[in-house]
Amino acid sequence: MNCPFSNAGKASAQIVPETDITVTKGETLTLTCKVNEETISIRWRKDGETITERAIIDTRLDEKKSKLALTEFGEEDNGEYSCEARNKPGTVARSVVTVNVKGKASALVVTETSTALTKGDALILTCKVNKETISIKWKKDGDPITERAIINTQLDEGKSKLALISVVEEDSGEYSCEARNKLGTAARSVVTVNIKGNSEAPSSSSSSSSSSLEWYYIGGALAAVVFLVALISYVTKRRETVMGFAGTVEEPSKSVLEMQNMTCLK
């Protein structure tokens, strides 16, 4: 009697990447399970349970692979992810990786001075970051910041300050703060700064013209006052003269009358 036996090959499964991985919060987790030609089915699990409905699974046995994707990865998605490959006899091959989520770095530039400055003013910018940030870098127009800038970074306080004591027109541009987490993921915040030159001082000719015009008005006012005083003085003296003359005319008339009276007596 011939005893039946199976000559079916063993299924195999290998998740890529093979090592435990860390994903930044909010990003997409992508895992690929590679199998062999003996595999007839593939199943994904998380912590031994059927995978969440949020997962997007694309299985292609003809290409000997299955891909799992989780968008907007969060803390609740932390755990052990496994790929199970089965062959015809039902033999299972299993591959496992552990996935951890890390917070995303954040950056926000706050202006402590106006971003519309005049040559010689001070520019002060502060970049506020979160606890996931491990490094902060300042740039201007995409390039490393000028050596003139004073930068004070205090990660324990979650901030970095940039100061330019006396700005010039060449300091105009786009200032950015880049915050990175342990995974190297960067967050970027940008502010645009405009510097204008000092307004030009008035020329000596315009200054002289303005001064002359000012004295013209002052001199004209003084001349008017002097004229009025002189006019009042003249009118007053004229009135006194007229009155004096009238008094002189009256006195001779009296003398003539007395002489006439004496003549009559004789």
Your description of this structure?
By secondary structure, the chain is an alpha+beta fold. Among the domains are: 13-102, Immunoglobulins (Immunoglobulin-like), CATH 2.60.40; 107-196, Immunoglobulin-like. The chain is 23% helix and 40% strand. A five-stranded mixed beta sheet has the order 2-9-8-4-5, with no helix packed on it. Strands 11-18-17-13-14 form a five-stranded mixed beta sheet, with no helix packed on it. A four-stranded antiparallel beta sheet has the order 1-3-7-6, with no helix packed on it. A hairpin with a 2-residue loop joins strand 4 (41-46) and strand 5. The chain is rod-shaped. Mean pLDDT is 81; it is low at 1-7, 201-209, 245-253 and 259-266. InterPro entries: Ig-like_dom (IPR007110), Ig-like_dom_sf (IPR036179), Ig-like_fold (IPR013783), Ig_I-set (IPR013098), Ig_sub (IPR003599), Ig_sub2 (IPR003598). The chain crosses the membrane at residues 215-235. Keywords: Immunoglobulin domain, Membrane, Transmembrane, Transmembrane helix.
